[in-house]
Structures are given as structure tokens and as C-alpha cells.
Design brief:
alpha+beta; seven-stranded antiparallel β-sheet; four-stranded antiparallel β-sheet; 4 helices; elongated
């Protein structure tokens, strides 16, 4: 009989509301921690296409460092700082940063993705995310011959192939094009000399038949690079740093 009426007691109700309040506090704290970590420290992403063949494949999953704190630094300041990425590294490019975003909608999207384990999003931003390789940095002079970029570092004397200046070895897929193909378009694989600005870098697909990169975009701002691939955690048979 006592148990039946216990829920109506002030002490029981107070204890129950205190328990519920702590649950909400813990959920809010975990959400805040998750948002801070994924915005400013690391994130996870899957490669949705084959543009980074042969080294990376569609379906590969990565842990990336996030450059959220770096985006708070005004453009152009990097000229006097060390960039958080270097030549040859695989990075995440977010072209949506060129667009003005509604803060409320952005926060709501974070909430939805958090409570659905990243399965649902109210903003379709996947079309703005690209995993590419950094080939040249601000101030570099670049040119391309037969899909291979040559880079003359800022204040450097000589130009080198992209592979010589990379921190890690990598392979590229070179497409076959007709001998009389117009060399003025990106698919030709040739490009005249170009000097990058103080806030510009040049990113490419490893599969050079895919030109959804700086060959068609032009050099991109360093601020559009929002993360660097640190580790491939799936598939297990290719576990490790890409």
C-alpha cells in the first residue's frame, strides 16, 4: 500500500525530478563535449567516390584532425605562421565555407546529427566536402606536364615534381587522352606556370581523370581546408596512415 502511494509524496517527486534533471545535464554536457571535439580537434569521414585512386578507395573511413580553431584566424595571416598541413598530405576541403550559413540552422543540424548518430542531416553539405591532396602551398610557382605537377617553392631556385616535395610517397592514376586533345582544358593534363597567392594552395585528385579540384576551381583559400586525414581505420586490411 505504501509503494502504491509513494509516487505522490513530495520527497519521491523531488528525487525523481532531480534524477531527470541530472540526465539532461549529462546529455547536454556530452553534446557540448562532442561538438567541441568534432569542431576543433577531430572528425570522422568516409570517402564516397573513387577520385583518390589508386591509394584511397571509395568506402575508406578516416579520422581527421579539425582546423576549427584555425578558421578563427583571419585569411592571409598564415603567411607568418606554420600551416597545419604540408605538401602531399590528404585534406578535407569544404567549399561551403564560401557561402553564408544561417547560424540557427547550422546549430539545429548539429543537434539532429548528434541524436541520430550522424545518420540524418537537415543540411545536405556532402556535395561541398571533398577529400583531396595538397600539392602546392602559398607562394609556390606551379606548372603541369602530362598530369604531373612541378612545384617551385617560394624563394626557391629550382622546381621539383610533386612527389619530390611530398612528406609521404603516393601514386596517381594518369588517364589516356587523345594525342590532339586541346591542351587549354584541364583534361589535357598540361598547365602553364602559375604563382599562388599568399592565401592560396593547390589541391588535386590522385585520379587525374577527375578534375573536380584546383584544375577547375582554381587555387583555393587555405581557410577552405578544414581538416587533415590522420588515420584510415576501415577497412581493417588497409589500416594505417594513408
Amino acid at each position: 500500500m505504501f509503494d502504491r502511494w509513494r509516487k505522490y509524496s513530495y520527497t519521491a517527486q523531488k528525487s525523481q525530478w532531480l534524477f531527470i534533471r541530472w540526465i539532461f545535464i549529462w546529455i547536454a554536457a556530452f553534446f557540448l563535449l562532442y561538438t567541441l571535439l568534432t569542431s576543433f580537434l577531430f572528425s570522422m569521414r568516409v570517402l564516397e567516390n573513387e577520385t583518390m585512386q589508386p591509394g584511397l578507395r571509395g568506402g575508406d573511413r578516416f579520422i581527421l584532425s579539425s582546423f576549427g580553431l584555425n578558421r578563427l584566424i583571419p585569411p592571409g595571416v598564415w603567411i607568418n605562421r606554420s600551416l597545419p598541413f604540408s605538401r602531399g598530405q590528404v585534406v578535407l576541403v569544404d567549399t561551403a565555407l564560401n557561402e553564408e550559413e544561417n547560424i540557427f540552422i547550422g546549430f539545429l543540424d548539429i543537434l539532429v546529427r548528434f541524436f541520430t548518430a550522424q545518420q540524418v542531416s537537415i543540411i545536405n553539405r556532402e556535395e561541398h566536402f571533398f577529400i583531396k591532396r595538397v600539392i602546392a602551398l602559398p607562394g609556390d610557382e606551379i606548372s603541369m606536364t602530362k598530369f604531373v605537377l612541378r612545384v617551385k617553392p617560394q624563394d626557391g631556385t629550382y622546381s621539383y615534381t610533386e612527389f619530390e616535395l611530398s612528406d609521404r610517397p603516393y601514386d596517381i592514376a594518369i588517364p589516356q587522352v587523345p594525342a590532339l586533345w586541346d591542351e587549354s582544358i584541364p583534361f589535357s593534363g598540361n598547365m602553364g606556370p602559375l604563382i599562388l597567392g599568399d592565401d592560396e594552395c593547390f589541391v588535386l585528385s590522385d585520379d587525374r581523370s577527375n578534375t573536380n579540384d584546383s584544375r577547375t576551381w582554381g587555387p583555393i583559400s587555405t581557410g577552405l581546408i578544414t581538416g587533415r586525414v590522420l588515420f584510415r581505420y576501415w577497412p581493417l586490411n588497409r589500416l594505417g596512415q594513408p
